[in-house]
Amino acid sequence: MSITQQYLLDTYRARQHGDPTPPAPGTNDWQAMRELADHRRFRAGLTRRQARGRIRAMLTRLLGQHRGAPRRTDAH
Fold it and tell me: Within 13 Å of residue 47, how many CA atoms lie on the same side as its CB?
């Protein structure tokens, strides 16, 4: 059963029972993603880790080790 079919079935059942209709699929996706990001920042704060830019900081550390090596240049 697809998401659309399930939504239509839930809407039909809600109307039969006089309940409010459920939100359409995808309506609250961005809100859920924001709440997940807020929760992750909160958890990072509890463990005293850096809340933002952890992946960028890790990549900077890893790639920063290679900065001393000479870079290749293409001859035109």
Answer: 8
